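Sanity check. The docking grid for zinc ion depends on where the pocket ends up, so I'm generating a full predicted complex first rather than guessing from homology. Inputs follow.
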Amino acid sequence: MRRVAVVGAGMTKFIHRALETPKELSWLAAKAALDSAEMKLDQVDCVVEGTAPDAFDGVHMNGEYLSDGCGAWKKPYLRCYVGGGTGVYALAQGWFHIASGLFDTALVVCEEKMSTCLPHPQAAFLTIFDNITEQPLKPNLLWIFALEMNRYMSVHGYSVEDIAKVSVKNKRNALGHPSAQLGAELTVKDVLASEIMAWPVHRLMVSPTSDGAAAVLLASEEVAKRVTNKPVWVQGVGWCLDSAYWTNRDLYYPDYVEKAAWMAYRMAGIREPRKEINLAEPYDPFAYKELHHLEGLQLAPKGQAPRLLADGVFDRDGDLPTCPSGGLLGVGNPIAAAGMMKLCELFWQLRGEAGPRQVPGRPRRGVAQAWGDLMQVGTVVVMGVN
Amino acid sequence: MKTPKNVETHVWRGGIPLESRYTAGLGGQIFFQALKERGELVGTRCAACKQVYVPARAFCERCFAELTEEVKVSPEGTLVSFTFSAYDRDANRLAEPVALALVKLDGATTTMLHRLLRVTSPEQVRIGARVKVVLKPKAKRTGSILDIEGFQLA
Ligand SMILES: [Zn+2]
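Predicted complex below; grid placement will be based on this.
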């Protein structure tokens, strides 16, 4: 397989309700990624698009609808979709195109415009639950997250306060992100004082619904070395799916993330993730999920992530900065675009271009991860400077 | 093109009108028949994988075997997790939070989602508690998951 590099990245602001159409959001992000690499659309060999449920944008066959905004006019074009895992998986899909030798450049664009969906984007999820055994109970997504968070806290003996620290960290980190929707200086007390949406999930532990897009430009080694002196290499990709029955696994630990992570780590030649990875962008649509995923990513021993968080290990200037972007909790959560935002963050951090968000110590390797479908898909990408 | 500030966004409304008719399937048929007619909770066993799937399934997701061995499991079990949800599916706040339970019935290897009855606050509940199923009377059962009212603390 050929080596693949990220040579450009760009994103729109993540906001609650965008004026731009989904096509226009895609175009803004894709154009920004191309511009950052000083490349033109005619240098793009193929296009990969990632967007989560059609219902958000309110367009069936949303991939086709978005294609011109993604720069796919008269090009090989493919949409990928694994729910919330899409944003990180999309890069893997772009990677296939180049690693296989079929193409030299691939533009990977992820978009979501959740504000289209009325009365609330939640409605897009109604039919992901089992239509016979669960839908009659009128479940919403919060149920799953609340049950999982409760399980995680109960198995490891943590309190809501321990989890709330993730919201404080990520929303503070987001203050340095020009695209962020919800950067804020908060205390644990503020988080606990926010409304209980589904016990033990408090409002400030939940990422917002958002509109936005993010994109990266991938290139083969030969092209990458010609167009930039700072390529960021895709060192490993991994993905894994657990049982399609979310009630059929112990929710306290994400096995599927562990399996996806090891697939990517093996490809990257990583044996000891905690020693060999300098920063991480785990998927954090809910505060506990960052901790849950850090354990799945083998970046904290099982049940130890909240303790490491309290010790400051995951702070921007800590031993292993996590979500230096501000994450979904701080930057926002336009589903597929949120995962791609994490990959953009790795790109900027590894090039030393993250501005006020830059983690110290010249990081050499980072991992980003997303999660989705009905809570059972893990998608992982490892990127590094060599 | 710059995003204009302070302008009225032109919007209109539309939708993707769809309705669906779902079948319970080969496995679901077994489960719902037993629930409606006999008030029993029936699963299927995969002896090779040591799994008892409740509700019954037609095949084992682990080894792909057809599951033909039906197993009646206990109406009692253990609370694996719970929540009190304050919002409905359209993100409207409910007058009273609804309590939900994830329960592993004795004899099953899977857990089941349903309402948790007769509790009003998280302080009254703990993970690991014993619970039992509450069924509707036979005359009111229609062969739906709602033939089960929910679980209550045993
Ligand atoms: Zn089996």
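Relevant for the grid: Chain B touches chain A at residues 3-4, 7, 9, 13-16, 20, 22, 24-25, 28, 32, 53, 55, 61, 80-91, 97, 100, 102, 110-115, 122, 127-128, 144-146 (CB under 8 Å).
Also worth noting: The longest strand of chain B covers residues 93-105.
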